[in-house]
Amino acid sequence: MWSAQAHMPTVLAGSQTVIVKGDGAYIVTADGQRLLDAAGGLWYANVGHGREEIAEAAAAQLRTLETWHIFGRYANQPALDLANKIATLAPFEDAKVIFTSGGSDSVDMALKLARRHWQLQGQPEKLTVVSRNDSYHGLHAYGTSVAGLSFNRDGFGPGTLIPETLLIDQWDIEAAERTIRAHGGEKIAALITEPVMGVGGVVPPPAGYFERIKELAKEFGFLIIADEVVTAFGRLGTWTASERFNLEPDMITFAKGITSGYLPLGGVIVAPSVSRQFYEGADAPILHQGLTYSGHATVAAVGLKNLEIIEREGLLAHVRDLEPILAEELEGLRSHPGVKAVRHIGLMGGVDLADDVAGLAVVAELERHGVHLRNLPNNILQISPPFIITENELRLIVGSIRAALDTVLAS
Ligand code: PMP
User: Which keywords belong to this entry (predicted)?
Assistant: First the structure.
């Protein structure tokens, strides 16, 4: 297997860790070590691992009808039900849901739809997609083209894969505005933004940031796409981060949290500002979207069960209760000599490690403490545990980071 984002000679030299079991907030390695999953896998294991009722929901659907596609006049009931359910959770009325197979799919879908929108609206010059430095939007062609992390964007020959893109400063809204004006704001089709930057280091927006983005979108007439692949379905204690920040996007991309990772699923929630033209009138155009597994029946059944669990167990409220605990714990870490900065919001935390501290060494030491964490690019620890984690376990994660840092600094 060619591992993802991996230096293969190192992997083949024996550094591979095989995970064989999941149980609530814990995972088990092939050599039998039980680890607290403080990263929630890749930010997906929101309801926790090993849920019997999700396995049952998948098995029941597989036995009835593994899937039927949703092309043209065909549909399957779980896909219809899940789309309707997601629409009720969206931060705008009359939401339409396009299904894909994951986050990168959803980004490419949303960005193509933004361009299609302006072609249909008689403004063919609106082609540019704006994204932010350090952002992550998946690794398909369009997501790569708008990548804000340069190592994901570089190395594909001159320019980018899709040429009409524009990077703006991560959070300095004045600098961003200057870049947009210099480019010609009227040429912009859409701005794509993670409400809280994830892979780029868990960076929440400064106060008032999205208000200014909305003003710019209004002034130049571009769409706002919230990339909520990490944040949708509860990571910030609200169904969407757009709701929490009153972002009022035209589209929301989602993936991970819709199934808590039990099966691959993604999609785009589309506001009427974009969808209406495809839904009304005999001469409404067809949007040429759709992947073989869009709206896969078994995947959708799992998504429905996952949302049911989040509601039944009150997990959004639990995340809101945990938010101040994580904040308190991480603030206590701020003065540690191995730490440069800490950031936190909802059940997301980032710890910038000091330059002389190797993140990989900290992660390895944490495993000895029974905690699995991820080291993001730029030497940042990612904390994003399953929503079901307890207050004590959350405190244990940060306490273990402190102990691991002490050990690494002393070595
Ligand atoms: N957008 C964001 C904000 C993400 O964090 C990710 C995945 N980490 C993606 C898109 C891509 O999703 P996937 O890996 O499911 O294609």
Answer: Aminotransferase, Pyridoxal phosphate, Transferase
